[in-house]
Design goal:
mainly alpha, 3 helices, elongated, 95 residues, 71% helix
Length: 95
């Protein structure tokens, strides 16, 4: 019965990931995004470490950098989801 449901959903032959595997993959993705954002924004906004606190200019730069990084990440994710959704839809026949 489960095979029939999978066949109807168009997922025959594709292994199903468990919820735990999906959570681990999502956590790895978020960790990667955070790491890339940290490296990128640090190198752009903090020239050298002179004090224990960031200057106003550095804080402003980091804030803008993080916001831009997250906006781009969201837009790319939305576009990928749209592309995947359109790829899964059957192509209309040209008659």
């Amino acid at each position: 019965m489960a095979a029939m449901a999978a066949a109807q959903a168009g997922q025959v032959g594709q292994p199903q990931a468990s919820p735990a595997e999906m959570m681990v993959a999502e956590l790895k993705g978020l960790t990667d995004i955070f790491s890339r954002m940290q490296v990128s924004c640090y190198s752009k906004c903090i020239a050298n470490v002179k004090e224990e606190r960031l200057s106003v200019g550095e804080m402003s730069c980091v804030d803008r950098c993080v916001n831009k990084f997250m906006d781009v990440h969201q837009k790319v994710g939305t576009e990928l989801q749209n592309a995947m959704a359109s790829a899964q839809q059957p192509m209309p026949s040209a008659e």
